[in-house]
Amino acid sequence: MSDSAHRHPRAATSGHTVAVPQRLFADYRSSSGLDTRLVMLAAPYRRLAPSAETLPALLLEVEHLFVGTDFTGHQAERLLELFERLERPVVLRRRVARTGSFELMSAPTRAVALEAVRRAWARSWVEAQLTAGNSFDPGSDLQLVAAASLNAVERGELDVPAARLPDGASVDLTPQALRQLLERYLDQSGFTANAATAGTARYPAAAAIAPVLARYALGACHQRIMRPADPYAFLALLQPSHSDSATAELRSAFLERAAAVGDYSAAELLPLAEQACEAERDRSRSGTGQLDTEPADRTAAADAVVGRLSAQQLTGIGAAAGAVRGVAVRAGAPISVGAEPLVLVCEKCTVGALQSGRAVAAVVERTGTRLGLGTLLARSLGIPCVTAVHDAALISAGDRVVVDGDLGLVTLSEGAA
């Protein structure tokens, strides 16, 4: 094989369609060092059960990473060579893991086409990690298509934002669809319906997590428009104190920039996400956040580990910045009065758990994500939060812990109860 053929694997061509060679995806990850970063990024999510929250939460981070990682000159050259073969305008078509359905993204210019490929690979990679297992190659079945060859149904699905549920079902995330999901969330019909219609706002599992989906849609929109250094910078737009000058300036800058680039969905997504967050806060007032896995008596093996080491470190995802040293209290359990700062250890943080006694100085969640309510609550209070701490059950009431919301670490200090 010649050096040229080695660099540029042949693409399959059929009429108005050109397949993006699978090997380009592996070359891109290898040359950019993405593989190592992806393993580290996904590790906390793999310890969580796949859910309609973990998928979009990880996707926001992975898509941010891919879009911020440029192609090499040879890779860009190869992709643009494929792009130039087709009549304009061009569309990117991606096959979805498990379902065999397709997503369609506009690629009208060379620059947009290159970014669309990276976004498509990000979505396929996340689906392969959390829903499809190792049997699906996330670099497969990506095609550039001449828009003129699309049928009426495909044209109607072009650029429709969507999220995937763990079973592969697609949920539309247009402002209209989100509005319908939120209505079902508010009247609770999404929790009781037995029938599900995949791909529509009537899907019960989607209605049950409407606030999470609204935040994801806003985050994806914010990422496209503002190109932030942190994929979760948009959460600052959703703080209850949005009337203060700093938050008001952030919101104004976002909406002005969105209007300047012609993305008018932002003006609808921001109030929808805000309304959804408020509804979720209200609903969580009765929640205790008690751990599903009760560690009432830590096992002898775990105690031996804690006793043998000067400190035991538990890893999770840093969701709210800051560091606090304090005493662990269990969600749903009585809180004793003392002078030391309290660290709330819970399944998922709720308003009810935070209002059950003394004010807490930090939060540790076992099953949350950065898209979850616990992150918003901690940020609104200005306290550290580490979420997705799979081994939170090792922490008993009275343990002295250090919570680092920047690094995503929880350390059981020497002298734990």
> How many E-type strands?
15
Strand line-up of the largest beta sheet:
8-15-14-10-11-12-13-9
Helix content: 40-55%
Secondary structure class reads alpha+beta
Q: What is the approximate shape? A: globular
CATH topology of the largest domain: Dna Ligase, domain 1
Which regions contain 5 or more consecutive residues with pLDDT less than 50? 1-13, 189-202, 294-310
Count of runs of 4 or more consecutive helical residues? 16
Distance between the termini: 65 Å
CATH 2nd-level architecture of the largest domain: 2-Layer Sandwich
Most strands sheet: 8 strands, mixed
Strand fraction equals 15-25%
Oligomeric state of the chains in view: single chain
What do you see in this structure?
The strands form three sheets. An eight-stranded mixed β-sheet has the order 8-15-14-10-11-12-13-9, covered by helices on one side. A five-stranded antiparallel β-sheet has the order 1-2-5-3-4, with helices on one face. A two-stranded antiparallel sheet has the order 6-7. It folds into three domains: 157 residues, 2-Layer Sandwich (Dna Ligase, domain 1); 125 residues, no CATH class; 113 residues, 3-Layer(bba) Sandwich (Glucose Oxidase, domain 1). The chain contains 16 helices and 15 strands. A hairpin with a 6-residue loop joins β3 and β4. With 417 residues, the chain is α+β, with helices and mostly antiparallel strands. Helix content is 43%, strand content 16%.
